[in-house]
């Protein structure tokens, strides 16, 4: 059976912790090479993870004819450049969240991949877990009534991590880019609508390059529905999502991360009666990678458009502008993409 052959641009921790083990758990993919701007670092990374080839530049990896697709976990501000370079080299692209640091960059990435005929996706793995299909099924059934509000929290304390790229404004650092994207994409997915405005407050920490280490706010959707959110890199850990309707509430105690012993179950309360719907933990990352591989190898359609990430980045930009300028920011309808 033909396998999708991956190359990794960079030696990021997330590649080691999530991407590599998930590819290894799949029977339709393999990792062929890794690259770094430091040849010795690339070789050490490849050896540590049993990857055959290592390159001392990203361009060398893109020139390898034995690579079909590349995974890009590079710093956020580098996503556009290396997505477009990869597309020009004929490689399919999976890029880490956030897709880009601006709407303009994100649009250029998707357009380049479409024009050059390569498959492109943002690594939004949590939505591939079957509990999100079930969540949508419950909403559509009318069991919790009309959805009135969504509330999401994704926080962790990374404040003591010295020289972390998340603390670099010029690299697209801060909590809104790093984990706010989960909350915004989840609300858009659940509500099946695009937001019309955002109002946010943020703590821009002088100790951390003046990036937003904590942000809270409201993202307004049509029909008088809103997402209220908290995201932070300097707060106690939580990753929850609640969808509140006129008759009941759906709650995901661990909405995005399933690390350690976190539960994948869904809690549904209807007219005061609580039930828990159990789910297997599974491997969210592998599920996304298998979808990606089947799209490339077999032409199977992806359930999420590459343009989805563009729409999420637009919300991040609106929230950042709102927090910095202390005003409500309108989000104009997006004219491009499918």
Folded structure, characterized:
With 338 residues, the chain is of the alpha/beta class. It has helices spanning 13-24, 39-48, 58-62, 79-88, 103-116, 130-141, 175-191, 284-298, 308-325; strands at 4-9, 29-35, 53-55, 69-72, 92-95, 120-122, 147-157, 197-205, 211-221, 225-232, 234-245, 248-252, 266-270, 273-277, 329-330. Strands 14-13-12-11-7-10-9-8-15 form a nine-stranded mixed sheet. Helix 4 (79-88) links the parallel strand 4 (69-72) and strand 5. The radius of gyration is 20 Å and the shape is globular.
Blueprint of the fold:
Blueprint: E1 4-9, H1 13-24, E2 29-35, H2 39-48, E3 53-55, H3 58-62, E4 69-72, H4 79-88, E5 92-95, H5 103-116, E6 120-122, H6 130-141, E7 147-157, H7 175-191, E8 197-205, E9 211-221, E10 225-232, E11 234-245, E12 248-252, E13 266-270, E14 273-277, H8 284-298, H9 308-325, E15 329-330
Parallel strand pairs: 1-2, 1-4, 2-3, 4-5, 5-6, 7-10
Antiparallel strand pairs: 7-11, 8-9, 8-15, 9-10, 11-12, 12-13, 13-14
Helix pairs in contact: 4-5, 5-9, 7-9
How would you briefly describe this protein structure?
By secondary structure, this protein is of the alpha/beta class. It is 33% helix and 28% strand.
In the predicted model, the low-confidence regions spanning at least 5 consecutive residues are none
Shape verdict: globular
Helix content range of the residues, please?
25-40%
- Mean pLDDT across all amino acids: 97
Radius of gyration: 20 Å
Sequence of secondary-structure elements: EHEHEHEHEHEHEHEEEEEEEHHE
What's the tally of helices? 9
Strands ordered across the widest β-sheet: 14-13-12-11-7-10-9-8-15
Number of strands: 15
Structural class: alpha/beta
What is the subunit organization of this protein? single chain
Measured between the Cα atoms of the first and last residue, the distance is 32 Å
Please indicate the percent range of residues in DSSP E strands (runs of 2 or more). 25-35%
Largest beta-sheet characterization = 9 strands, mixed
């Amino acid at each position: 059976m033909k396998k999708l052959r991956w190359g990794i641009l960079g030696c990021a921790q997330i590649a080691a912790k999530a991407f590599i083990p998930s590819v290894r758990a799949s029977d339709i993919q393999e990792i062929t090479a890794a690259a770094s701007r430091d040849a010795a670092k690339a070789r050490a990374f490849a050896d540590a993870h049993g990857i055959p080839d290592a390159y001392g530049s990203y361009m060398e990896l893109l020139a390898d004819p034995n690579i079909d697709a590349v995974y890009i976990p590079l710093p956020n501000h580098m996503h556009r450049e290396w997505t477009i370079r990869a597309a020009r080299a004929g490689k399919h692209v999976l890029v880490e969240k956030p897709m880009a640091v601006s709407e303009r960059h994100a649009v250029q990435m998707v357009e380049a991949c479409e024009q050059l005929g390569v498959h492109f996706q943002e690594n939004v793995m949590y939505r591939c877990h079957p509990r999100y299909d079930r969540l949508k099924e419950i909403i559509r059934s009318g069991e919790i009534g009309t959805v009135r509000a969504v509330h999401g929290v994704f926080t962790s304390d990374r404040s003591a991590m010295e020289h972390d790229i998340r603390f670099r404004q010029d690299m697209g650092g801060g909590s809104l880019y790093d984990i706010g994207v989960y909350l915004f994409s989840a609300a858009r997915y659940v509500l099946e609508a695009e937001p019309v405005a955002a109002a946010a407050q943020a703590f821009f920490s002088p100790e951390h390059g003046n990036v937003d280490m904590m942000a809270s706010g409201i993202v307004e959707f049509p029909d008088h529905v809103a997402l209220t959110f908290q995201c932070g890199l300097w707060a106690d850990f939580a990753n929850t999502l609640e969808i509140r309707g006129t008759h009941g509430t759906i709650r995901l105690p661990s909405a995005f991360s399933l690390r350690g012993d976190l539960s994948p179950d869904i809690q549904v309360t209807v007219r005061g009666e609580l039930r828990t719907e159990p789910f297997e933990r599974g491997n969210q990352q592998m599920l996304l990678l298998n979808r990606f591989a089947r799209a490339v190898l077999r032409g199977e359609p992806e359930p999420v458009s590459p343009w989805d990430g563009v729409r999420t980045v637009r919300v991040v930009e609106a929230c950042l502008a709102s927090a910095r300028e202390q005003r409500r920011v309108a989000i104009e309808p997006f004219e491009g993409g499918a």
